[in-house]
Write a structure and sequence with these properties.
single chain; alpha/beta; Rossmann fold; 4-stranded antiparallel sheet; 7 helices; binds adenosine-5'-diphosphate; ABC_transpr_LolD-like; cell membrane; membrane; Cell division ATP-binding protein FtsE; AAA+_ATPase
Length: 217
């Protein structure tokens, strides 16, 4: 489902964020990505979601070689992926419902079906009943749930999250992890990064450990 073959990412400043990485993640797997700040976690996730391109090597996602795709084909591949961004990307001038509706608006969904999907996604993350609330009124944990609802509303096959538990107290962080597990349990391929490995250990899942752009044991 996700396959990196000898992937290197060098930013224009010259930093080599990823060095000759190879790994694969099967359909339906739940995998964690660990590493300190600067290890290359965000870069790896951005290569999967198509926000950055590999300098060399190949990145395969759902059968597409992202390094060979033309820009116009990228949105098509992105429809299979849900992303929870590190900086949230919540629109604070729109209410909860409209924030979650956004990806479906972009795809051009039928309005009634879209509204049903938005409520289903909000229900999954425990925010049903807060559709009209403005995001500024939500707690940190609720804002993170909003981001997760928005990431899954188009029913992606792959869900990736960049440090979704950062800035949350441990109890809230564990809640968020349980939420990701619930999507894994219905067949979604899940990849989550965190710098706190203790959050991952209880799950008995594969942990990819990055250090200075390379895997460690
Ligand atoms: P992590 O998510 O593990 O903190 P990142 O992938 O954000 O790691 O960063 C890996 C390395 O790449 C760091 O040295 C960082 O400074 C560098 N880097 C990240 N994004 C950029 C960018 N847009 N331009 C230049 N260097 C970057
Ligand atoms: P419905 O089928 O009415 O949309 P579900 O209860 O099956 O409702 O799912 C509720 C929400 O959970 C969906 O809108 C979606 O956000 C998420 N979801 C459920 N199953 C999947 C899946 N296989 N892939 C991605 N997201 C899913």
């Amino acid at each position: 489902m996700i396959q990196f073959d000898q992937v290197t990412k060098r930013y224009s400043g010259g930093v080599e964020a990823l060095k000759n990485l190879s790994f694969s993640i099967d359909s339906g797997e739940m995998v964690f990505l660990a590493g300190h700040s600067g290890a290359g976690k965000s870069t790896l996730l951005k290569l999967i979601s198509g926000l950055e391109r590999a300098t060399s090597g190949s990145v395969m996602v759902s059968g597409h070689n992202l390094s060979k795709l033309r820009g116009s084909q990228l949105p098509f591949v992105r429809q299979h992926i849900g992303v929870v961004f590190q900086d949230h990307k919540i629109l604070f001038d729109r209410n909860v419902f409209d924030n979650v509706m956004l990806p479906l608006d972009i795809i051009g969904f039928d309005r009634r079906e879209a509204a049903r999907r938005v409520r289903a996604a909000l229900d999954k993350v425990g925010l049903l009943g807060k559709e009209k609330v403005m995001p500024i009124r939500l707690s940190g944990g609720e804002q993170q749930r909003l981001c997760i609802a928005r990431a899954v509303v188009h029913r992606p096959a792959i869900l990736i999250a960049d440090e979704p538990s950062a800035n949350l107290d441990r109890a809230y962080a564990l809640d968020i992890m349980e939420l990701f597990k619930s999507f894994h349990q219905v067949g979604v391929t899940v990849l989550i990064s965190a710098h706190d490995e203790t959050l991952m250990e209880d799950y008995g899942r594969r942990i990819l450990r990055l250090k200075e752009g390379q895997f460690t044991a």
